[in-house]
C-alpha cells in the first residue's frame, strides 16, 4: 500500500459505519482465532441495518479477516469466486455532475446515495466534496 492509498483510506469516511451494530459490541467477537466460532458475530449482524453495505465494502476492499456483513472469511471468498463483479463506476465527472454532487450534499444527502444516483464512484463524490470544503464552497 502506497502513502497515497493510505491517505485515501484514512480520509474516506464511511457513513454506513455510523449505524454499525458491532460498534456497540465486543470487537473481539468479529475477529475470532483461526478455527474459532463466528456464530456470535453473525447473530449481531443479523440485526444490523447496514449489513448489505458492510458486506459490499468487505468484498470491494478484499477484507480478508473477520466477519463482515454476516459472512465469515471463507464465505466471502466463496462469494467473490462465484459472483461476477459489477463494472467499476466512473470516477471522471463532468462539471454538471460536480454541481449536482455539491447541491445534493448541501441538501444533506449522503455520499453513497449521491454516488448511486449519478452512478459514479463514491470516491469521486468524496473527492468533489472535500475539494469544495477546502475551498470553503460546501456545507
Ligand atoms: S453487518 Fe455485522 S460486521 Fe457489518 S457493520 Fe453490521 S454488525 Fe458490524
In short:
This protein has 139 residues and is mostly helical. The protein contains seven helices and no strands.
Your description of this structure?
The protein is mainly alpha-helical. The chain folds into two domains: 15-82, no CATH class; 95-134. The protein contains seven helices and no strands. The chain has helices spanning 3-11, 39-46, 51-60, 73-82, 95-107, 111-118, 122-134. Helix 5 (95-107) packs across helix 7 (122-134). The mean pLDDT is 86. The structure holds iron/sulfur cluster. Iron/sulfur cluster (SF4) binds at residues 20-22, 30, 44-45, 48, 50-51, 54, 67-70.
Which cofactor or ligand species appear?
iron/sulfur cluster
Oligomer: single chain
Global mean pLDDT: 86
The structural class is mainly alpha
User: What portion of residues is helical?
Assistant: 40-55%
Task: Sketch the topology as an H/E string, one letter per element.
Answer: HHHHHHH
Low-confidence stretches: none
Radius of gyration: 17 Å
Total count of strands? 0
Distance between the termini: 32 Å
- Domain count: the total is 2
What portion of the residues fall into strands of 2 or more residues? under 5%
Major sheet, described briefly? none
Q: Count the helices. How many? A: 7
Principal-axes shape call: elongated
